[in-house]
Amino acid sequence: MLINWRSVVEYSLTCLSANMSSLHPRTVNALIMNVVIKGKRRKERLYPVLVVENDLQQWLITRSALAKCFPEVEPIWKNHPSQTLAYLKTASMDDRTSPRLIFLNPFAPTQQDGWALMIQLKSDSYLRKIPIIVLSHSEEPEDIFRAYALGAASCITKPSSYTKLVEKFYTLKRYWWNTVSLPFATTTSV
User: Fold this and answer.
1) CA-to-CA distance for 164 and 30, rounded, in angstroms?
2) In the beta sheet, which residues pair with residue 48?
3) In this structure, is the dihedral angle defined by the CA atoms of residues 123, 125, 126 and 131, taken in order, positive or negative?
4) 52 burial class (0-12, 13-18, 19+ CB within 10 angstroms)?
5) What pLDDT sits at residue 155?
6) Is residue 50 within 8 Å of residue 73, measured between CB atoms?
7) CA nearest 51: which of 184, 183, 158, 126?
8) Share of residues in the chain with pLDDT > 90 (%)
9) Rounded CA gap, 163 and 48, in Å?
10) 50: which of 30, 99, 138, 147 fits an S-S bond (Cβ 3.0–4.6 Å)?
11) Global confidence as pTM
12) What single string gives the DSSP state of each residue in 107-146?
């Protein structure tokens, strides 16, 4: 009997997004790594995209959606502002390693830390060039207003299902990857 592993992963992620405790994170991580991400890797250079998310399960869901919608990117996970700043300090030494986009959960690990990180990123003359896309469960108008006031390029509310997240990421790709010109782009199309 042939098993369609892609369907297994998508089903698992749907279950995971519906009930976060239904699957062990290591199980989901192993499925994603072995089926979705490794299977889609290309030989050409992958472009870094930074995901700042403190929740492991949310990171796994986001990484899977990025792998499905953006096979040309290498998602990089940082779960704390100090890790994020250390990574960006190193990555900013070379335009080829600087992330093309930053997905930021402003509540990672706390609301004060996330917003403070955004302020730090936008106050740095080099890092302010990288578009920040706020990716949060919050639908509060105050949070959305604050994100834009602090310099977010976009603000996306995380949907309740994996399928809807993938739809949002495809839309996001059409705009951020296929329409606009991003900083640090190489001579070939990103």
Assistant:
1) 23
2) 74
3) positive
4) buried
5) 94
6) no
7) 158
8) 51
9) 24
10) 99
11) 0.73
12) TSS-HHHHHHHHHHHHHSTTGGGS-EEEEES---HHHHHH
